[in-house]
Amino acid sequence: MRPLIISAPFGNYVQPRSATATLGTFTALERPGRWWRTLSTVRYYRRIGAWVNRIGLRNPGIGWLAERVRAGKIDASDKIVSIHGFSEEEWLALLARVREVKPLAVELNMSCPNVGEIDWPEDLFARAMESRVRVIVKLPPVNWQEMAGQALRAGVRTFHCCNTLPVPAGGISGKPLKPVALQCIRDLIELGGTARLAIIGGGGITTTADIDEYAAVGASHVAIGTKTMNPRLLWTDKPIRALIGHAERRLADAKN
């Protein structure tokens, strides 16, 4: 993985060659919704540097991705594929389809403030590790300790800290998320003990100084999301080139 990662769902559309894009988040079944209507749920609060959205995992389903990979229309071998299941059957079905897609890594998106309570089978992480694909567990910003402990015991060594904060209007990202994500990384490293972890830090990254803060607490990668909401990024990485270059110089990939 490149030091700088484009988070889902933005990685579906913004894919600079010097970064690793995350496709998804894919669910077992299609969750329909027009993209322009989805974007209409995004609100920016300038005073606190925060974004709030109710995107809610709108996507065409994992079958859509598998078909396009099989047809040669999408190459997932250099990309992360993010998945989310609403039941044990869906999680296992998603993992089976991921093996068909053969991505660079699979990200288990373990939370989304817009879709209600998160549940997962006790052996989810162990089953994911059997997929022969690098496994990333994307943690929620709160109440993540139990799932992280289960993932560590199953052998997972790559984590993404963390998803958006739940608020009545949806999920909040941007600057208010950064201190939460930084503390999540510190606590996760302590929980991991002697395990060598690769940690993707994400939340509120808009400058190279933000990357430095994540590096200082132990992140080996950084992820950006709403920072990519710039139409120019559809054909050039110039608007985020400084972030990409700084991440490459500042961060080192911790191996599983």
For the residues shown, what is the average pLDDT? 91
So what's the oligomer here?
A: single chain
Rounded to an integer in angstroms, the radius of gyration calculated over CA atoms is 17 Å
> How much strand content do the residues show?
15-25%
Q: For the report, how would you describe the main beta sheet?
A: 8 strands, parallel, barrel
Question: What is the CATH architecture descriptor?
Answer: Alpha-Beta Barrel
Distance between the termini: 12 Å
Q: Order of strands in the sheet with the most strands?
A: 1-2-5-6-7-8-11-12
Please state the overall shape, judged from the principal axes of the Cα atoms. globular
CATH 4th-level superfamily: Aldolase class I
Number of helices: 8
Q: Helix and strand succession?
A: EEHEEHEHEHEHEEEHEHEH
Detailed description of the structure:
The chain has eight helices and twelve strands. 30% of the residues lie in helices and 21% in strands. α7 packs parallel to α8. It starts with a strand and ends in a 6-residue tail after the last helix. By secondary structure, the protein is α/β, with parallel strands linked by helices. The mean pLDDT is 91. 46% of the residues are buried. The strands form two sheets. The protein has an eight-stranded parallel β-barrel, surrounded by five helices. Strands 3-4-10-9 form a four-stranded antiparallel β-sheet, with no helix packed on it. It is globular and about 40 Å long. It has a single domain, classed as Aldolase class I (TIM Barrel), CATH 3.20.20.
